[in-house]
Amino acid sequence: MTANARRVAFILLELAIVAGVFIADVYHHIFVSKTPYLLALAWISIRMRGLRWRDVGFTRPQNLARAIGFGIAAGVAIELIELFITQPLLAHATGKMPDLSDFAQLRGNWKLAGIFLLLTWSLAAFGEELVYRGYLMNRVAELFRNTRAAWAVSLVLVNIAFGCGHIDQGATGMLENIWDGALLGGLYLATGRNLTVPIVAHGITDTIDFVLIFLGLYPGM
């Protein structure tokens, strides 16, 4: 087997394991979240290839303050687009709002709000960005030799997977997350494949969502 064939086979094996984790999650065989399992796979893959997390973008940008500010602004913009444009359009098309019933108990519950915010910035913002944008987008792009077309394919395929990972939110929730994931992936590429901006933007969007749910102001809840 040639070196290139081994490279392709290794990537395909990793993607098959990722698919297996998704399937296990659908059948409720995953405890709490699939993100830690995917992070473990990503870490093993990166170490086996002699790389570090910084090689997929988890490193301090040249101007940290600017990156954080950009991430905050991008997160607010993504949330506004979601609440006032994409979500109403998708809800009209599917006849349903996203199913966020799993978070209904958050309303007015300060203790639970604190727990959810902690999970937002750990599992969601840091965890999911490391997995989907940092690890998976790079691996899919590598499968097609990192050309510009490969990165475009990676942006589409990985963020479809990201949306499908929110199957518990129904069709509207999945489509919404595909769109949001594509925007976060676009930020990753636009900032030289650095994860700082998408991590901050992701955390901001989810934080706003949970604050609105806590206050009883989230649309449809």
Pick out its properties.
73% helix; 221 residues; mainly alpha; 7 helices; globular
Instruction: Please tell me the total number of domains.
Output: 1
Largest pleated sheet: none
Number of strands: 0
CA-based shape: globular
- Put simply, the count of helices is 7
Helix content: over 70%
Residues in β-strands, percent: under 5%
**What is the alpha-carbon Rg in Å?**
18 Å
Measured between the Cα atoms of the first and last residue, the distance is 56 Å
Describe this structure as you would to a colleague.
- This protein has seven helices and no strands.
- The chain has 221 residues and is mostly helical.
- It has one domain.
- It is globular and about 60 Å long.
Helices, strands, pairings?
Blueprint lengths: L2 H24 L8 H14 L15 H31 L15 H34 L4 H17 L5 H21 L5 H20 L6
Helix pairs in contact: 1-2, 1-4, 2-4, 3-6, 3-7, 4-5, 4-7, 5-6, 6-7
Q: Would you kindly provide a brief summary of this structure?
A:
This protein is mainly alpha-helical and 221 residues long.
